[in-house]
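Design review, sub-item: ligand-bound model
Attendees: FS, YL, KQ
YL presented the inputs for the zinc ion complex:
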Amino acid sequence: MKIVPAFHTDTDPEDPVYHDQAECPYGKEIKRNGNARPGTAGRRRCDWCSGNR
Ligand SMILES: [Zn+2]
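KQ shared the predicted structure:
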């Protein structure tokens, strides 16, 4: 598991989470789309990043 600095996107108001795993497929999509914002924004950790997958 590779930990990266927490990031999130503001394009997911239905499911506000943040990511901190380099391999997270949701996080990767955010990075790919160029929508990553730094920090957690007070959100809960993404299920995938929490290991619930
Ligand atoms: Zn994630």
